[in-house]
Amino acid sequence: MIMENFEDLSGQKFLSEIRHRRSVRDFSSEKIPREILLRCIEAAGQAPSGANTQPWYFVLVESESVKQKLRKAAEKVEQDFYERKITERWREDLKPFQTNFSKPYLTEAPALIVVFSRKSTLTEPSYYPAESTGIATGFLLAALHLARLSTLTHTPSPMGFLNEILGVPKNFKAHMIVVTGYPKKDAFYPSLRRKNLNEISKVL
Length: 204
Description:
CATH class: Alpha Beta
Radius of gyration: 18 Å
CATH superfamily: NADH Oxidase
Number of strands: 4
CATH topology: NADH Oxidase
Mean pLDDT: 94
Number of domains: 1
Number of helices: 8
Low-confidence stretches: none
Strand order of the largest sheet: 1-2-4-3
Structural class: alpha+beta
Order of helices and strands: HHEHHHEHEHEH
Strand content: 5-15%
């Protein structure tokens, strides 16, 4: 690799960019050029993986009817979570985000990228599929941010309905829905504090 071709070898430029990444729940309906989304998915596919098995699989959803089906199924799961499974501590921690079982962003955002992780089979092994897919998802979020798009990671549980609605084989496990688009002008941003470097690392 010829490092001389890189503009910033210190990592400062990327740090400055990624500091501005924020999750958004209020999306504009403005369409995203498909080639931008596909390039970001291709960037995610450059992630490292166990024995290079590349166990990730991405489904780009732009269809309004499919988004409606996904939202209906996700809200059913989320309502069960908010009414029966959530702990009081978890409910308290979610208050700053003003969130509940209603997920309008699943139909308001122009694109959903559903991330799957391939389970190991006799004919197609996967090594560390969850870890590898997690790294690829991080690449995807960074690529979308650098493309000046906003995102929200959504993980309803259980997520088996995604395989059924999207026609993805059962040997793939749903990993995450990445809601993608441009934020509304009046989008709500909760007040958040990021831990500083000393809180998240140490040098030995």
